[in-house]
């Protein structure tokens, strides 16, 4: 009988996670083309109607490109990692990072997405970043596509709605696998692939005003991404010996609002719709419960010969996911609505909420880890978890972010319990180790970092970096391998 694993494994990968479009800046430097994220404007809170950033129209893009708006586009500027990566990586190394999750901006490598040749300046930039990470012994964990579809693919093909984009993605993957085969071992194919359901533009560069049937187009686009992911997994294994390639899910652990069987069944359906994505990636086929969903919604997935075989033969090595909150669902109208990232749900009276209304549930992370491991028996990797909050800079420049420390401490405690439960957990990358532009709202005031960046919602500030209280705390967590919290 195997002994219980009481602490985190010796080779546990502690670190932080980012995305190029929220971090890099330099949107028009080094030969980079425009990406879908470069079209997302900041809208002040008092002018927001719903979640403004999630969808965009063909006409809106045309107006932006014609210079007919005076909007501010924060993701174009990020926090200038492009010019400051050495300073930032030195700070990550000071914290003791074992791994740094980042993405390659596809439009920095293929500016239009369908270019005949890659952009050498873009390739060299990531060479330099990887070299800097490896200098400190930090493993890169690289996401191939993190809400950064080249805008050219949206304009010419309507993004992932077109089967042709599979080929362009595979060419891009082959290019970067070949270039960085000696530098990058860990890869993710798509960030939060299920977000396509909530925002086809964010997840797939799809303009829904160009399609007749949104749901049909979304699931067809997802099929294209599944095939592309499997083909990239195959290529990665062939090109990079010992590589480990994973999928990435926005995990939406949910609870039934009551023990009413209707609520329990509703929760089961929500769970299946979330785990559909990891089922395809990890099991290599569409789960049977989707057959009825497709039939009842008149969805017909067009497959090319060999697609099913490609999916079956190229399953992922591990499953990664983001976890920020849990959801409570009801089959009826009961319950008070709550805020959330991309989705709502019912307020859970047993949980506290963040400044943005996200319900804080550390035990839910343990539940998630157990559920995913029970289902797949594959290694798991938490690649996003953190607290977005308002941070106050004191007169002496300090940021006393005890609330962030409390949030992370409680989640790490539950991770440790899950490891004791028998879950095979590879690592943990806290979201936004340095303040960056918010994905959902394009704010800077919604901060996650251990490192403060002097930049506000309007783009004003010095961009100077400084350490918050959580910096030294996380450094201690890593050095003790999670024993000192």
From TrEMBL:
Top-level taxonomic group: Bacteria
Active site: 384 (nucleophile)
EC assignment: 3.2.1.86
UniProtKB keywords: Glycosidase, Hydrolase
One MF annotation (Gene Ontology) recorded for this entry: 6-phospho-beta-glucosidase activity
Keyword tRNA-binding part of the UniProt annotation: no
UniProt-listed Pfam families: Glyco_hydro_1
Keyword Nucleus among record annotations: no
Similarity-based family: Belongs to the glycosyl hydrolase 1 family.
Name of the molecule in the record: 6-phospho-beta-glucosidase
Species of the source: Paenibacillus phytohabitans
């Amino acid at each position: 009988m195997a002994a219980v694993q009481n602490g985190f494994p010796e080779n546990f990968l502690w670190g932080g996670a980012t995305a190029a479009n929220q971090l890099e800046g330099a949107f028009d430097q080094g030969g980079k083309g425009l990406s879908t994220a470069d079209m997302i404007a900041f809208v002040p809170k008092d002018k927001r109607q719903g979640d403004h950033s999630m969808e965009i129209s063909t006409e809106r893009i045309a107006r932006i490109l014609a210079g007919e708006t005076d909007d501010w586009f924060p993701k174009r500027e990020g926090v200038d990692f492009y010019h400051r990566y050495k300073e930032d990586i030195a700070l990550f190394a000071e914290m003791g990072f074992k791994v740094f999750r980042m993405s390659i901006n596809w439009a920095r490598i293929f500016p239009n997405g369908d270019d005949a040749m890659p952009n050498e300046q873009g390739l060299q930039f990531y060479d330099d970043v990887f070299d800097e990470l490896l200098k400190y012994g930090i493993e890169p964990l690289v996401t191939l596509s993190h809400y950064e579809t080249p805008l050219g693919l949206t304009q010419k093909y309507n993004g992932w709605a077109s089967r042709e984009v599979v080929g362009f993605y595979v060419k891009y993957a082959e290019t970067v696998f070949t270039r960085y085969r000696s530098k990058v071992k860990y890869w993710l194919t798509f960030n939060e692939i299920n977000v396509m359901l909530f925002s086809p533009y964010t997840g797939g560069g799809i303009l829904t005003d160009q399609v007749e049937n949104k749901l049909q187009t979304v699931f067809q686009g997802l099929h294209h991404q599944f095939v592309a992911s499997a083909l990239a997994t195959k290529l990665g294994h062939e090109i990079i010996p010992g590589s480990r390639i994973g999928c990435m899910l926005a995990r939406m652990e949910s609870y039934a609002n009551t023990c009413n069987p209707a609520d329990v069944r509703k929760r089961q359906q929500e769970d299946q719709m979330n785990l559909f994505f990891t089922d395809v990636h990890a099991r290599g086929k569409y789960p049977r419960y989707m057959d009825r969903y497709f039939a009842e919604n008149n969805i017909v997935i067009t497959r090319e010969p060999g697609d099913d075989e490609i999916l079956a033969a190229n399953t992922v090595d591990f499953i990664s996911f983001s976890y920020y909150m849990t959801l409570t669902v009801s089959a009826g109208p009961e319950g008070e609505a709550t805020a959330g990232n991309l989705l709502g749900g019912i307020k859970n009276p047993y949980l506290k909420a963040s400044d943005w209304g996200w319900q804080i549930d550390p035990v839910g992370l343990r539940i998630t880890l157990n559920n995913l491991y029970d289902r797949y028996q594959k290694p798991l990797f938490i690649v996003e978890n953190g607290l977005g909050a308002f941070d106050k800079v004191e007169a002496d420049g300090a940021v006393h972010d005890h609330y962030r420390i409390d949030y992370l401490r409680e989640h790490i405690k539950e991770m440790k319990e899950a490891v004791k439960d028998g879950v095979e957990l590879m690592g943990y990358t806290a979201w936004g180790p340095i303040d960056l532009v918010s994905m959902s709202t394009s704010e800077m005031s919604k901060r996650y970092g251990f490192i403060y960046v002097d930049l506000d919602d309007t783009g004003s500030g010095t961009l100077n970096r400084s350490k918050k209280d959580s910096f030294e705390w996380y450094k201690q967590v890593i050095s003790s391998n999670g024993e000192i919290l």
